[in-house]
Design a protein that fits this description.
heterotrimer; A mainly alpha (157); B mainly alpha (215); C mainly alpha (238); B: 215 residues; mainly alpha; 9 helices; 81% helix; C: 238 residues; two-stranded antiparallel ribbon; 8 helices; 2 strands; 74% helix; globular
Chain lengths: 157, 215, 238
């Protein structure tokens, strides 16, 4: 989804996530969803590994998945660092790692590239490609090119 | 580990980390300390009225942590993440009620022992107080969560929460204090009724409030 | 004092000093305990319950000395900006609170058979209780302001303000002649009989040494935790 601010990209993602009820129309899910939005939802005093581990437990995946996801976003060396010491970009990558670890079929990403440097954007792109190759679906609102040339573009106005 | 357990344990850990869980306890003891200054050190007077003062203190102790029960999780997006995973808001509410009770209920019952000594309460009164606290504090915890969910995200939430919660807590206060007398058995049963009613309503009210608070 | 400003130099002294204080103090406490329990006669009025004195008096002394220490550390932090002052204040707070609590509890247990009550709103008991609450407030404040480097003066200000309570406790038995016994031990002598009194200085010294060891250990722990925090921060910034 592309488009200027205020056109409802975030609201559509929240609708798809089941957080809002639609006034009209229907949404059908064919799998579990994972949401990465602006709020990180990571406990600031926990270590990165523990913070992600909490959500992994709720997702029913083990710590090995968490480690794999941290690797995918180049966060593995930061695993023992408390979340409050992480920069905004690192926290953003952590929310993406959470989505990767959760193994949900449907990814809902709100401006995932915000605050990421070039290397991290490439990693994000690779993770998204791998997810789609595995049969997953991604709905993302973005300003930046994420190297997804074969993705369907929806322009909101 | 079920979602209920995971959420309960996290809330409990957050409550005790940073030492914040001790505040209601200390507050409770402070009230027990300040009350004799207010009414004078007259022994029999303290023994008669001290139990009621402790019930007031228990009420306020349940109310004190309200701004950390729902609002921080709502702002951080934690409640949203629970919903995305299909965890019902009612389950989240129940887990949080249990965690909140564990964070202040048993410690309060423990603190009632030195508090009773400070207020010169008789042994029989202390027993009835402990019984009442065991029965009534779960209802207070349920009420605290409902109020927290209703006021999360509003500015000046603390004072507003007090305004909302205190009237609904009045039955617990009346029956709890009433149970301290010699013929308190009837009041104790009514206390149980009030507490159970609050416990029954709270998860649904809290769940609805969480959903309504989403933008 | 600024000799100890460098944490490394402080640690170089504190590390060997801690076991001497700790074990030496524990030994003295053991000697005092044995003496106080078995080698002294019972009091002619109070009987054996007077033996609580050997714990009660040192706890009271340490509770008060602890806060005096906190007040001194706060002064060093605010006026001379000594880098270890905040650490010292935080290190003293918890054992100080504990010994105040021990003083209150042992006093209550002692008071039951002696005065017939668990508690009385007398000047000394009340001001000691206030001291305990002040400790709790200091601990909560230090934690909430998250100050590990001494840059945040909030807890230190509280430490100084609360110091007003110390002379109140000390003179409370003179100002209000209610329940707690008057000054039995002054610099000029003592009204307690020597046959009961002699284990008390041993207990006082022993408990003080143990207290010192605990404070040093806590200071070392806080410094170690600061080091870990700094390292984790560097990892995040790398």
């Amino acid at each position: 989804m592309t488009g200027p601010n205020g056109t409802g990209k975030s609201s559509l993602l929240r609708l798809a996530a089941g957080l809002l009820r639609a006034a009209a129309g229907e949404i059908e899910h064919f799998g579990g969803t994972a949401l990465a939005a602006e709020q990180a939802a990571l406990d600031s005093d926990a270590t990165l590994a523990d913070a992600l581990g909490f959500w992994a437990r709720l997702d029913g995946v083990g710590q090995a998945e968490v480690e794999r996801a941290l690797d995918a976003m180049a966060l593995a060396p930061l695993a023992p660092v408390p979340v409050r010491l992480l920069s905004t970009g690192q926290r953003k990558r952590a929310t993406l790692a959470r989505v990767i670890a959760g193994r949900a079929a449907i990814w809902l990403l709100d401006e995932p590239g915000n605050g990421l440097d070039t290397a991290s954007l490439e990693r994000l792109s690779a993770a998204m490609t791998a997810h789609r190759a595995g049969g997953g679906i991604i709905l993302t609102a973005t300003h930046q090119p994420l190297g997804l040339d074969d993705a369907r573009q929806i322009a909101l106005t | 580990m079920t979602a209920f357990t995971a959420i309960l344990l996290r809330d409990l850990r957050l409550a005790y980390a940073g030492g914040r869980a001790w505040l209601p306890l200390v507050f409770f003891l402070l009230v027990a300390t300040l009350f004799p200054f207010a009414v004078g050190p007259d022994g029999p007077l303290l023994a008669r009225t001290g139990g009621g003062a402790l019930w007031m203190a228990a009420l306020l102790a349940a109310l004190l942590p309200i701004d950390r029960l729902i609002a921080p999780d709502r702002e951080a997006g934690v409640l949203d993440q629970h919903a995305v995973r299909g965890i019902s808001e009612e389950t989240v509410a129940l887990a949080k009620i249990a965690a909140h009770w564990l964070s202040f209920g048993p410690p309060l019952m423990l603190a009632a022992l030195p508090a009773a000594a400070l207020l010169r309460l008789e042994g029989a009164t202390l027993v009835r107080l402990e019984l009442g606290l065991a029965i009534g504090t779960p209802g207070l915890a349920a009420l605290a969560l409902t109020t927290a969910a209703l006021t999360a995200g509003l500015s000046g939430a603390g004072a507003l929460a007090g305004l909302l919660m205190l009237p609904l807590a009045v039955p617990v206060l009346i029956f709890g204090a009433g149970a301290l007398g010699d013929d308190g058995m009837g009041a104790l049963k009514l206390l149980a009724a009030a507490s159970l009613l609050l416990l029954a309503i709270a998860p649904f009210a809290t769940g609805a409030a969480i959903r309504a608070g989403r933008s | 004092m600024h000799i100890f400003a460098n944490p490394a130099r402080f640690l170089a002294i504190a590390r060997p000093l801690t076991p001497w204080l700790g074990w030496g103090g524990a030994l003295l406490v053991a000697v005092a305990a044995v003496s106080g329990l078995f080698l002294t006669p019972p009091d002619y009025l109070q009987g054996d319950s007077v033996r609580i004195m050997y714990i009660h008096v040192p706890s009271a002394w340490l509770g008060m000395a602890g806060w005096t220490g906190i007040a001194a550390a706060s002064l060093f932090q605010l006026v001379w900006r000594h880098p270890l002052a905040a650490v010292a204040g935080q290190a003293i707070a918890v054992p100080g609170a504990l010994f105040s609590a021990i003083c209150l509890v042992t006093g209550s247990i002692w008071g039951r058979p002696t005065w017939g009550t668990w508690w009385q709103w007398d000047g000394r008991l009340t001001s000691m209780l206030v001291l305990f609450f002040l400790y709790l407030g200091y601990i909560a404040l230090a934690r909430a302001s998250d100050d590990r480097t001494g840059a945040n003066p909030i807890a230190a200000i509280f430490g100084l303000v609360g110091a007003i309570n110390i002379p109140i406790i000390h003179y409370s038995v003179l100002w209000w002649r209610t329940l707690h016994q008057g000054q039995s031990i002054t610099l000029s002598g003592s009204t307690i009989d020597a046959s009961i009194l002699w284990p008390l200085p041993i207990a006082l010294l022993g408990f003080t040494m143990v207290f010192g060891a605990i404070v040093l250990m806590r200071m070392r722990t806080i410094l170690a935790r600061n080091k870990i925090e700094a390292r984790l921060k560097r990892m995040a910034e790398a």
